[in-house]
Amino acid sequence: MKNLILGLSAILVLSSCAALSFGSFRSGVQIPAGEEFLLGEGTPEEFRLKLINTCYCDVPIETRNAAGEKTSGFGLAKRGEVELTVSAGEHAVLRNPYGSTVTVNAVMEKQIYGMRYQSISTDSLQ
User: What pTM, to 2 d.p., does this model score?
Assistant: First the structure.
């Protein structure tokens, strides 16, 4: 009887966790040294995501418009997390100015297209 109750409890907990994550997409983004990760480039509508910094260094985060101009920016604190809303016609940029790879976990409400890496340009360092 004890094993049956324990088994049913485990199934209940696992199904609750699955229900909580239903409809969201999770991704671990590893950004190589000296590069930036662009997310949502060309996405016409607003989108939201939660970013979780798994590293022991701050990660610069920006939003940019379609022309590549910075519209906002902040530093995601080491081991910190933030919920970010990216306006229609903009995209998120996760930057790695460090000498080793950084990892940020991203949780999105819906699948977001337009993802790529590029070298950090001298224009974006301003």
Answer: 0.77
